[in-house]
Inverse folding.
């Protein structure tokens, strides 16, 4: 029998699981380095960050309550009416299942509901599977915006919503 998946807004109780998911993924791809969110103290308190207006973070969990993925968004101030797609991560057990595409579509709907007109994202050459998903979902690569904070990221994409 296939396990049921549940999409829901992140709660404070998810902080540890989501931080571990993000760090595990970054480490796998050699991105457990300064200049990435890996060392960001805020990663351990994402619920607080995403609780503000115009932001959101969502997790996917099995019916047993185990978090196997997540994705978020927040306004990207340098670009008008733009939200940044943030922290799309999946547990190894969920990779290759099509959930990455589902999460991108899901968060784009949430961005539209929040009134955003376009989506922006940052990623890295090391994250080829993620880049493949973004391109298949209609994102177009752009030059690095001058306001980019995480200096290690080296690929930048945009999409009209």
């Amino acid at each position: 029998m296939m396990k049921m998946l549940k999409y829901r807004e992140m709660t404070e109780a998810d902080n540890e699981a989501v931080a571990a998911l993000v760090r595990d993924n970054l480490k796998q791809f050699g991105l457990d380095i300064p200049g990435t969110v890996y060392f960001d103290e805020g990663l351990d308190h994402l619920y607080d960050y995403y609780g503000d207006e115009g932001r959101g973070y969502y997790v996917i969990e099995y019916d047993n309550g185990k978090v196997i993925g997540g994705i978020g968004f927040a306004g990207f101030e340098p670009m008008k009416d733009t939200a940044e797609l943030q922290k799309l991560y999946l547990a190894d057990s969920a990779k290759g299942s099509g959930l990455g595409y589902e999460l991108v579509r899901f968060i784009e709907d949430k961005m539209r509901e929040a009134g955003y007109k376009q989506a922006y994202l940052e990623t890295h050459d090391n994250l080829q599977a993620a880049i493949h998903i973004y391109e298949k979902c209609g994102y177009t690569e752009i030059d690095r915006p001058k306001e980019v904070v995480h200096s290690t990221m080296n690929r930048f994409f945009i999409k009209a919503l």
Q: What stands out?
A: The two ends are 36 Å apart (CA to CA). DSSP finds four helices and seven strands in the chain.
